[in-house]
Amino acid sequence: MGLFDKLFKSQRDIAKDEIQEGLPWQMLESEDQLNNLIVNSKRVPKVIFKHSTRCGISRMVLKNFEAGYSLKDEDASFYLLDLLNHRELSNTIASKLNVMHQSPQIIVIDNEEIIHTDSHHGIDIKRVEQLIKKDN
């Protein structure tokens, strides 16, 4: 994407452009959606990836995370939170789940509880997959 494109694209469009095909991301954009995913984590684990489109480290960690993905769609649901557009929602997550805000950050929720959280270079899709497969 060229500089001209970046100037005229919204942060949401940039975040969507950074997502690779294959990993079934859903955009996390509201507190209602957050509440629903927490409740629905009783059925299937939920993974939240907090991503800043202006951060090179966040972009690199996201790409590495996506490159290692091998779960089936029914094993877990994946949510991407664009921090530039939804910082208040990130604050709500921190408060509601009692987890310190970081970026990039991964949060895995199962049975309405956090079973894993990590940030920066500690984010590892293989660790997330192990936790999810162990639970299923």
UniProtKB/TrEMBL annotation:
It comes from Nonlabens mediterrranea. NCBIfam families: B_thiol_YtxJ (TIGR04019). InterPro entries: BrxC (IPR022551), Thioredoxin-like_sf (IPR036249). It comes from the Bacteria. The gene is ytxJ. Pfam families: BrxC (PF11009). This is Bacillithiol system redox-active protein YtxJ.
